[in-house]
Fold this protein.
Amino acid sequence: MTHPVYADATPLVSLAGIRKSYGAVRALDDVDVDFRAGEVHVLLGENGAGKSTLAAILAGVQQPDGGRILLDGTERRIASPRDAMDSGIGVVFQHAQLVPSLSLVDNIALGGPWWQTPQRARIAQRMREADARIGGTGRLDPFARAGALSLGERQRAQIVRALMRDSRLLVLDEPTSMLTPEAAADLVRLMRRLADDAARPLGIVFVTHRLDEALDCGDRITVLRGGRKAGELRPGADMTRDTARDTLLGMMFSGGLAQAPTIAASLPAASAAPVLEVQRLSIADADPPLRDVTLTVRAGEIVGIAGIDGNGQRELAEALAGQRPFDAGDILLCGASVRGLGVAARYKRGLRYASDDRHGEGTVSALSIGLNLLIKRIGDAPFWRGGMEKLAAVDAHARQAIEAFDIRAQGPRTLAGHLSGGNLQKVMLARELDGAARAIVFAKPTHGLDVRSAAACHARIRAAAAAGLAVVLISTDLDEIVALSQQIVVMAGGRIVARIPGGEGAHAAVGRAISRSEDLSAGGLQDRSFGEAS
Amino acid sequence: HAAPAKADELSTIAILAPEAATDFGWNQQGVAAARAAADKAGVKVLVAENLGYDDVRPVLRELAEDGAGLLIAHASGYNTAAPEIGAELGVPVAITDRPQAREPGKVADYTASGHEGAYLAGRLAGRLSRTGTLGIVTSGEPPGWNSQSAAFAQGARAEKPDIVIRYAVIGPAAYSDAAGARRVTETVIAAGADIIFGQGNGSSFGMLAAVEATPAVDGGKVWFIDVIGDKTPIDKGHLLSSVIWNLEPVFSAIIADVKAGTFGERNYGIALRDDSVSLLKTPHIPEDAWRHIEGIRQDIIDGKITLTPVFDAAGVHALVTSATRAP
Amino acid sequence: MTGRFIRLVAAPLLLALGLTACMLALMGVDPLAYFGLVVQRGLLSPSGLQAAITRMAPLLLVAASLILAFRAGIWNLGGDGQYLLGAVIAAAIAPALAGMMPHWLAWLVCFAAAAVTGAVWSLLPAWLRARRGVNEVVSSLMMSFLGLSLANVLIKFVFQDPGTTVPQTVTLPVADRLPRIGDGLLGGAVSSGVLVGLLAVLLVHGVMTRTAFGLRLRIVGANARAAVHAGLDVPRLTMVVFGLSAGLAGLAGAVDVLGIQGNVRAGWNPAYGLMVVPLVFLARFNGFAAIVFVFLFSVLSVGGESAARRLGVPNYVTLVTVAILLIGLAVGEALDRRRRATKAATA
Amino acid sequence: MMELMTTAFATALLAGAVTAGVPLLLAGLGEQMSQKSGVLNIGLEGMMLAGAYAAFVAALGTGDPWWGFAAGMVAGMGIAALMALLAVCLGLNQIVIGIALLLGVEGATAILHHLAFATTYPRLPPAPSWALPGLSHLPVVGPALFDRSPVVYAAVALVAVMVWIDRRTGFGLSLRAAGEHPSALDAAGGSVVRTRVAAVLAAGAGAGLGGAFMVIVGAGIFVPFMTNGAGFIAIVLAMLARGRPLMVLCGALLFGACLSATTALQVAGIDAPTDVVQMLPFAAVLLVLAIFGQGGALPAALGEAWTRGNPLGK
Ligand SMILES: Nc1ncnc2c1ncn2[C@@H]1O[C@H](COP(=O)(O)OP(=O)(O)OP(=O)(O)O)[C@@H](O)[C@H]1O
Ligand SMILES: Nc1ncnc2c1ncn2[C@@H]1O[C@H](COP(=O)(O)OP(=O)(O)OP(=O)(O)O)[C@@H](O)[C@H]1O
Ligand SMILES: [Mg+2]
Ligand SMILES: [Mg+2]
């Protein structure tokens, strides 16, 4: 795998001494970095290190407080996203910047001259061409509403849009965090290919939390820490992967990283009674409809639910939590049906759900940490007495959680909206593991978290199982599932299509099951791969 | 607190009007009359206009504090507040549309009903209508307008038993809805009316505009009969007449009674008798018609024709409905 | 604190005063004289201050109604109709009740009846929003227009005072109205309705910020999906919020009638909503700030009317002054918010 | 009753419905555009009133109604420019600014009218109308629909223009994006601020023209506060229309028709209490909502100020 690196050509973009603060937070502090055509440049760093800020500056969304930006060697200001675009910088943001109610074609036409009729047919044609160029299989429908597409498709559409605008530098902020391993691998290959395109070599800026991805495709890896450039690495033959990993981790985290065990904790004793039983659960009113889902989780056991996003995992989790009614089947907690119980009652009996949508539903940004820890038991003593909030009790409870879960915040009254993703996740875990938890559903618990936060989260999940909880782990991250689960089921089209025991060989088996199921469910609105055109 | 002015040392009076005193109507007539009466009596007048219909109590208090020895609360909407504040501060108040609130030394009412004049207007209109259809357009249905609408219908019917009357209200509170007034008036004209009896504040200008712009169904001119004020200065040749209310005699009498210490021993009204109600004579009224009206006026004064005012909307509706179905 | 005060109140006030001064000068009026008279009448003269405080009563209740709804993310813009219907019901039953039972009981019954009336008038928009997801802005506004007409119908055909030709309800004698307060300091001309208003605003503020119930409402208002995740019954809470908010609007009508007006005339519609909506937004739904803004507005409306009359300018000047002041306060609020946002980032 | 059903009467009713509906239509179309872009323009009534006053002064001064319409439009846009500056560019609360502008315009036009016209109340001559050849001679609909002020035709044509803007122009896309997901528009290289400013100005133009129509064609005279709530009804119509200009037209005509029906009932002597009859249009809207009402389709970012790089502003 050799590829040209235009090391001596003028960089497409160089940043010199870039500084950016939000109030007293130094998001970027005197950062020097350059991006070249034909090079995949990975940005690494823990949550809050400044990666998105850097991307936002390149995108013209944020203005640096100081420092210089050189485009093709000449100093320029990127005053707006339009400016960035005109300079050949295309950005795929972490949160999709597509208008959900518009078709893809219209989303691509957006920003064109205001008086002109969007040339929809022509744009669609060019879109198909661009899609083909990045190895599309023609399944990206230009006239589909953006809101109806999967996350992967939306990302793909944004890349297509950037290419159609003749971008020379493509910036992708955490594009792989929401994708399945296959899709992520495809995307990584695609980046490689775009950079290597001899006719039009692109510069790629790739933000990720996954070291393996970084090492797989990065020509250069820049590590940010606390807004400063902590170092740079060129993975090459002179370095083993393990040395490279250790070097990177050393740059990312001052204290280094305690290595977490990679094999599943010992299986629970055979005698352990089932804690959570799902019996032939069906929900007609869902997309896809859930059919005959049966699961048994024993005390101390972690059952992983693998599969591509949007195959009924969310519906299953919501039905378990009591957020969504079901038509047939039953859910038993310690042998007793919870069918008639609402969220709060199930929470009280120990059935817990840590949602994957931390901002959208898991927390309320306008409320303090203390109250966010209690939103599933509002009104309960000792935090409320006679309906009146007891601030002291709420604060004390929150302080304990902050201490126990190492939540980095000023105090119990800090608003959830001011927390980073990793800390927000800790707040949710603290809430769901609080008190007499018996069974807990984790949905994509580490998505978007940096390596250290993710490892801490994994340790929590193991600890929960070790303490005798029944754990359901829903994830699209195959490594995560395999690393943690004693049993793995694969969901597709609203059913369970495979049951695979954890441990040796699970990874390959689950991967096979998922790709088989993908072929079966083609045509739906599932995530599609970035695979090569065959 | 300002001591209540002694009756015999009345030096200042005040009048409170809900809208601007430039409406060629109720507010303008009231304020002008108060000024004239005060001039005559040699007292000062404080004018508070544009007060709206909400809570007028603070203004009443302030005017009393400023030395007004008589408060004329010139809106039926003030007839609850004014006696209360008057009693509280010991200042005599004159109110309208609530005769039974009279109280010696404290409250007197000058319910102004122009029904006698409106009756004359109805007679005039009935006589002059070419199409045999008259229109009544009002911006709402307060009692003062109901009594005039009813009397107008009665007069028209007395003049011509088979006359048709088209009645329309612009809106629930359409006092300033000039566009609505014009639209409604045009519809009434299209329904055959060639004389419009119009009652409204700001909206009456919309009625006037409609009359000026729209021909009657027979192709001829549509006439307008106004109420309360005299719009002659702004007429463009369509103002047939107006039921003029002259409140100056009323206010003069009130001031005199306050000075004499007899305030509140009687209520006041407007009537043809003392010309506090009159029908405006314009050059557009033919001489013979005017003589005819003069005769009827005398009959009313002499008691040969007795009129009982109808203040409620249902009464008006009954009257105009029967007129609608007359033929 | 001082800096905040300057940003939030003093600077906008000065800006508004400056602009109003220009306007007055253009009209040939001495701005200093005008402002002097506004302050003199609205703030310094005992009866003016009493009037301003009395005027706050219904405004405060309307503010409480709006704060409750807005904090829960419900745009109840039908307050005027709810208010008027509440007022009509209170006015209709008060005179009869006053003769039958102790005053305090009669008042309480009237309050309850008015609140229930207001709440009933919000049922349709509440139901449409809760069960059918119909945006409540349009439906509540339409109900408000309907309510204004219905109030007139009730007055004219059901509750008309037989003793008068004016279409209005029977007048509640002054002696039977809510007692006046502040004998010593305020000259005894302040309606105790203002206490009900203050109590309502503070209560709503307290409930929203300090109780379990208020927390549930805030969650619904801030993030409906999080509310579902937390197991809250969003449709039911929506109905409850609508009912409480409309009930407070109805109560405002009752307090206005029992404390000040004594009766309701057909066609009367003070349209307090239009005034109070911007005030509670400026207060950022904070009860204490709302009280300050309502007081400011009352002083301005009482003082402005007097100043205009004394200087011979049309009373419309007050409207323009209020408009400029609102804009000034909005500028101040935005500056302050920006300041606090940067501070929060620093935290 | 039957004898009342003359062509003249039917014509007047239909013509009246159109006359009452057109200002609502013009203002409603403008408001719809503004709402689409994410700005809740609650001060629409103020823009109408400003348009009405300016149109009156200009038409009176020049003797030419066309200058009146132009002036009305410009005045509406003037107030809209304030709205745009304060609520879009500076990001101040849209509702506070909207209501403040309404109060300010109400006060200012009343003062100006007081100073200039309160003793003379001048009226405007009848506005010119254009007869559409062929159609204007039809009974009833001819004079009521096809022999009207050109502004009536323009208003109806505007519906088509709006549909065309929505479907066929880059601006239409920008509008949607600015209201649904402003950051996406920004990221795509469009300008949220410019789009919203343009939409607010368009709303001002529509409202100003509507006010001008009310004065020049409708009333023939200006009196203070004469818009009498029309602006709020236009806002409601724009919301009810859920983004479809044609629905604004239907709503405006329905409203005008209800007003005409109210008058017709009264004129026909049907003895129903006026207040009950006048509930008609509002009851009609509620009925529509109760029967057909479904989930709200208002733009996601409606009413929210946007600044680039503010993560909370989506
Ligand atoms: N708009 C903003 N306002 C205030 N502070 C901000 C803003 N955006 C980012 N920050 C702060 O700046 C710092 C850097 O944030 P940034 O988003 O660049 O980190 P990141 O490296 O992308 O993190 P992650 O891995 O979680 O995506 C953080 O402390 C963050 O809290
Ligand atoms: N106004 C703000 N004040 C302080 N911190 C903020 C503010 N807005 C955003 N942040 C923080 O800035 C950080 C970066 O924001 P960004 O939009 O990049 O999210 P992110 O952290 O990358 O997202 P995720 O948590 O999904 O990885 C987040 O941690 C967020 O909590
Ligand atoms: Mg980031
Ligand atoms: Mg992140």
Notes: The mean pLDDT of chain C is 90. Residues A 94, 174, 421, 448 surround magnesium ion (ligand 4) (CB under 6 Å). DSSP finds 15 helices and two strands in chain C. The two ends of chain C are 18 Å apart (CA to CA).
